[in-house]
Amino acid sequence: MEIHPLQLYIPPFMVLASPAAPCDWFGVACRPDQPSAVTADIYAVAKLNLPAAGLNGTLVGLNFSSLPTSPPSTSRETRPIPHTIGRLSRLSVLHFGSNNLTGMIPQEISDLGSLSVLNLSSNSLIVPIPSFVANFSQLASLDLSGLNLAGRMEELFVGRAGLKRWNFSSLPNMQYLFLRDNYLSGRLPPFFCTMNSLRALDLSRNRLSSEIPSCWWEMKALQMMILESNHLSGRVPLSSNGIMPPLLSLHLANNSMTGEFPLALENCKELVILDLGDNKFVGDIPTWVGDSFPSLKILRLRSNMFRGVIPPQLSRLGKLQLLDLAHNNLTGRIPSSFGNLTAMAKRQQVALLDGSRFTYMESIMIVWKGAELSFQQNLALVTGIDLSSNSLSQAIPTELTNISGLLFLNLSETI
């Protein structure tokens, strides 16, 4: 019995047709190699979409530019993605994320000039930055998370492509850029300021250390910015032109940021998630927070140095599902108006970011029964209030009993 070489690396359930019909494989999509023809017998690979497919070790050669009528060569390459992948000139999606691939990515991958989506995340790959992405002029989504990338970011992603100087702003169609869980260091580079198509940026869990450049707010399309778990410092800057991007989600937790509650956010009317936890913010929580964020579902300010009373205006956040103000210096009473937090009165069954504008998984750290847990896939179902470790009045408003859908209420050590 003849076994296609890719079956050595792809679980058998993924091969739905005969080995000679690779266009029918799970995760493989094709299109006619000659679109003008009335009938096309030759098809070109358009998508290789194999996230978390159980791929291990190295992949064999892809010795074709369009899919053949017979199986590819059974000879094995020494690289996880073979040199010959550069021949798949019409490939638009390459998704090998969350597998067990190892070794060096071949330089020939830079020949895939039609790529719009490239995801190599969560593998043990060695990625030549930046040369291999410099030719991807159509690239809209790039995920290199969890690849142990190391170096100063302002140098690592700046270079030359031929005679031209290159950086990420040279990719005009880039909308989604995910580089989390690496060892990137240095400053937040200013070349992001001119990336007007960028919608989502995740640089979390790196070693970046600087202030946020004020020009970053000039990214006109930015909806999601995740910078948590770095070494960022300084204040959240005001926008240089007074206009903020249409942010839906902002994660700045677990840094060393200072100053008062960021005034720049007052005009971010579409915010759904705001996480400023585990920083060094000071001062009062502004009363305008309750009126400025009508869509806010998660407000996490824990482990800062906020002082003063809890603004009763927070009860105007009609969509709020999670309020975490623990470990601050808050005083006074718990507002009785918190009983009007209607979104907490029922169990939630909708996505945090309505309309599925992102398939990207949000995550939030929540202290649940004394343990710090990361909620991701089920985050939209969480409803809770944590006011612990403050200096609040002992009186618990009876109005809180109106919040029947509350999953947790933590008022420990509030005296």
Automatic annotation (TrEMBL):
Stored InterPro entries: Leu-rich_rpt (IPR001611), Leu-rich_rpt_typical-subtyp (IPR003591), LRR_dom_sf (IPR032675), RLP23-like (IPR046956)
Gene Ontology cellular-component terms listed: plasma membrane
Glycoprotein in keyword set: yes
Any Pfam family the entry gives: LRR_1
UniProt main location, coarse: membrane
Membrane topology reported for the UniProt record: Single-pass type I membrane protein
Record carries keyword DNA-binding: no
Keyword annotations: Cell membrane, Glycoprotein, Leucine-rich repeat, Membrane, Repeat, Signal, Transmembrane, Transmembrane helix
Localization, UniProt: Cell membrane
Family note: Belongs to the RLP family.
PANTHER family: LRR RECEPTOR-LIKE KINASE, RECEPTOR LIKE PROTEIN 30-LIKE
Protein name listed in UniProt: Uncharacterized protein
Organism the protein comes from: Ananas comosus var. bracteatus
